[in-house]
């Protein structure tokens, strides 16, 4: 996450992605001090080169970050002070629009800093993070708590002239006012001082939490010592393990399983070495929970206490109530209602899945006392899948080449959004693995933006998959195009050989590309409202939606090609994939919902002192969590929730968004199919292009013609159907909307 001033205010960016949404610099006059600093520090210079300027990745030195951030903050504060002390009466142009222009140089610095922090982390970077995180939090509070500035914003918000503004300007004014209030602008001096102290403490704790998880991910590997340790793994997985051993310089090993999901989950699925599966499972699921210097439990307890105190200061019952006040759900109760509606059938299905696996294990000769353990679940689920549906995921994987799947995503983007992608080599990148494409409108040839792709795992890169926005689309001062990226952690194969990915990985690839398309489709005037800068439980909607296009015949027949023969995936195999589409949904839904429910319950607990491990264990028992399943993100490694405020009391949003996505995809299937042009146009016009210029509930209704229903999700997952809607609570006072 890149905590620039605008985003401390808006609080709507993709924290999981460490996104740094930044703005252009052409209209900003530098202070003399900043101009002088820029001479010696290229991070403080305007982005130059083609496509409206690109990040100067080839000029970055770690030693430049701290002075660049300090200079950027000083310049930003000077700009803010000029706005706050303006002698002219407050207007939209001299206050709100001026805020949009302020801090642009700092935003660019923080974009690059965020990339190095998340993708190229070193001890030097981590030391800077530990020092600067509290300072940047204090910097944000200097802006949020600037009384003169808030009075100007409030004056514009309450002015009778506001009705003369465009709908987008009214929306932006409301967002600034609302976010300043939510950030403590109306508190008294004593409360503001305490609030700032809390924010600084939290920033330090978030950094420590993230670095502890990264340390466990970087330092821990499972060494496969002999060929027997590779038992059950396909040739491609064995090659991946061998390549990991080579990259880690572990001589004499048959292979290495790194501590990332993309490496561990395939091993848990196919390895026939049960003791090694257990070791891999414990390595991955105990990240941040091993005692010693990298244990996160005490940090979690501190974070929860501080969040509860902050919520009280701001006038909310709990941190969960504060966080959800500014979402589609509006209240924790609404989010809990949705989760509980799905939890019961998910657990029931998971128990059926366990019974099937237990029976198969017994049939294969397991002892009478054998019980499925968490490290057995994926292994036996895959056996049941193969037996019941004649579907071997290893067979599917032979047709899923990373490069071909990427081409398939480009093709889908062309069909739905009229985009074309062309590789470019005239821009610098921060690592040799990163490739860049120019995005254009297929019809007009108009430049839309740039898409960077960083696909492979490496030491110092956090695990998972995410989207970044290096620059947001906007038209405040000329037409500024966007720069976005997708980031994954695939295991890189040998040079010259294709990287094969699993069906799950291919789905995640499409998911993250959905975020990128959300940014690329943006068509707004003001940068704060651009692209993915929407409320937390709406931001995952476009990405969840795009997953639906992976299994379409148009994609599979054209891009799911065997890595050796080049032949398309057989229809018989596609049919088996379709028949098995609801298989294991009990497990997948339960492991996700367990994390989402624990997140919400932790933050509804208020100020009570919490032992994270004990709370997790006891609450899961009370919920009826199957003993064979573990939370997708256990509390000590739950970076969504404890590396920032971003998804705190908000992990439910993935479920909220997938309800929207399932219902939205039904609009295509009810019409002319997945590539229906009129439906795609409505989707672009009302969801992907509008950013945060309209209330998301209104945007969805304009696209769908009604509020979303949960029916499509329940049908997709094979759960009992209960007709209901996921209807947001009535919106608070907001500006006029576009017609």
Report on the architecture of this protein:
This is M3 family metallopeptidase. Residues 267-718 form the Peptidase M3A/M3B catalytic domain. It comes from Hymenobacter cellulosivorans. The chain has 739 residues and is α+β, with helices and mostly antiparallel strands. It is built from 30 helices and seven strands. The protein has helices spanning 5-10, 32-40, 65-84, 92-101, 104-119, 123-144, 147-158, 167-182, 189-219, 235-247, 261-270, 274-285, 297-313, 319-324, 332-363, 377-389, 393-397, 402-417, 503-520, 536-539, 541-546, 553-559, 571-579, 585-604, 612-623, 639-642, 653-669, 677-688, 696-704, 711-717; strands at 221-224, 255-258, 419-424, 435-441, 447-456, 466-471, 482-490. It has a five-stranded mixed beta sheet with strand order 3-4-5-7-6, sandwiched between helices. Helix 2 (32-40) runs antiparallel to helix 3 (65-84) and helix 27 (653-669) crosses helix 30 (711-717). The radius of gyration is 25 Å and the shape is globular. It starts with a helix and ends in a 22-residue tail after the last helix.
């Amino acid at each position: 996450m890149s905590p620039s001033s605008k985003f401390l205010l808006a609080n709507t960016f993709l924290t999981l992605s460490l996104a740094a949404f930044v703005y252009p610099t052409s209209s900003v006059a530098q202070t003399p001090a900043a101009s002088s600093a820029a001479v010696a520090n290229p991070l403080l210079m305007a982005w130059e080169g083609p496509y409206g300027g690109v990040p100067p990745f080839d000029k970055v030195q770690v030693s430049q970050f701290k002075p660049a951030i300090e200079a950027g903050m000083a310049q930003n504060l000077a700009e803010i002070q000029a706005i706050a002390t303006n002698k002219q009466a407050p207007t939209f142009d001299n206050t709100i629009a001026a805020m949009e222009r302020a801090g642009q140089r700092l935003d660019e610095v923080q974009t690059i800093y965020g990339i190095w922090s998340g993708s190229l982390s070193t001890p030097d970077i981590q030391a800077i993070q530990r020092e600067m995180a509290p300072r940047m939090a204090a910097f944000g509070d200097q802006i949020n708590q600037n009384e003169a500035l808030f009075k100007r914003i409030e004056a514009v918000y309450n002015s009778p002239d506001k009705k003369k503004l465009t709908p987008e300007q009214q929306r932006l004014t409301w967002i600034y006012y609302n976010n300043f209030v939510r950030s403590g602008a109306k508190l008294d001096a004593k409360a503001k001082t305490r609030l700032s102290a809390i924010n600084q403490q939290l920033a330090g704790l978030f950094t420590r939490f993230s670095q502890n998880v990264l340390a466990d991910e970087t330092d821990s590997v499972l060494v496969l010592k002999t060929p027997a340790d590779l038992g059950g793994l396909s040739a491609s997985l064995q090659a991946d393990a061998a390549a990991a051993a080579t990259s880690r310089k572990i001589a004499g090993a048959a292979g290495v399983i790194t501590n990332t999901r993309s490496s561990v989950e395939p091993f848990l699925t196919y390895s026939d070495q049960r003791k090694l599966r257990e070791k891999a499972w414990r390595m991955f699921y105990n990240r941040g929970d091993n005692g010693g210097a990298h244990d996160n439990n005490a940090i979690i307890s501190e974070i929860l206490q501080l969040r509860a105190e902050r919520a009280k200061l701001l006038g909310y019952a709990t941190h969960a109530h504060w966080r959800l006040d500014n979402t589609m759900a509006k209240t924790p109760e609404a989010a809990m209602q949705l989760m509980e509606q799905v939890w019961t059938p998910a657990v029931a299905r998971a128990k059926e899945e366990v019974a099937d696996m237990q029976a198969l294990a017994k049939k294969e000769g397991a002892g009478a006392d054998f019980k499925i353990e968490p490290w057995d679940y994926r292994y036996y689920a895959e056996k049941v899948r193969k037996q019941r549906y004649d579907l071997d995921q290893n067979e599917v994987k032979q047709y899923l080449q990373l490069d071909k799947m990427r081409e398939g995503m480009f093709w889908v983007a062309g069909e739905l959004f009229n985009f074309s992608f062309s590789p470019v080599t005239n821009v610098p990148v921060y690592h040799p693995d990163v490739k860049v494409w120019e995005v254009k409108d297929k019809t007009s040839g108009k430049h839309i933006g740039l898409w960077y792709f960083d696909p492979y795992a490496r030491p110092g890169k956090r695990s998972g998959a995410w989207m970044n926005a290096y620059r947001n689309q906007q038209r405040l001062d000329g037409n500024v195009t966007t720069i976005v990226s997708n980031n994954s952690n695939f295991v890189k194969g040998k040079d010259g050989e294709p990287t094969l990915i699993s069906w799950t990985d291919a789905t995640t690839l499409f998911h993250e590309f959905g975020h990128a398309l959300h940014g690329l489709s943006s068509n707004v005037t003001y940068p704060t409202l651009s692209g993915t800068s929407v409320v937390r439980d709406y931001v995952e909607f476009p990405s969840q939606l795009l997953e639906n296009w992976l299994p379409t015949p148009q994609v599979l027949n054209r891009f799911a090609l065997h890595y050796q023969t080049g032949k398309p995936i057989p229809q018989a195999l596609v049919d088996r994939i379709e028949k098995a589409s609801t298989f294991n949904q009990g497990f997948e839904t339960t492991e996700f919902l367990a994390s989402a429910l624990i997140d919400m319950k932790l933050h509804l607990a208020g100020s009570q002192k919490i032992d994270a491990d004990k709370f997790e264990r006891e609450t899961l028992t009370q919920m009826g969590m199957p003993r064979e399943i573990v939370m997708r993100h256990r509390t000590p490694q739950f970076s969504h929730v404890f590396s920032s405020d971003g998804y705190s009391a908000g992990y439910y949003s993935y479920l909220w968004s997938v309800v929207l996505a399932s219902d939205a995809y039904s609009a295509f299937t009810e019409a002319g199919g997945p590539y229906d042009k009129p439906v795609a146009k409505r989707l672009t016009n009302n969801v992907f292009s509008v950013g945060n210029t309209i209330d998301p509930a209104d945007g969805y209704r304009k696209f769908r013609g009604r509020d979303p229903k949960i029916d499509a999700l329940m049908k997709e997952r094979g759960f009992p159907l209960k007709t209901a809607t996921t209807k947001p609570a009535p919106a608070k006072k907001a500006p006029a909307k576009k017609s």
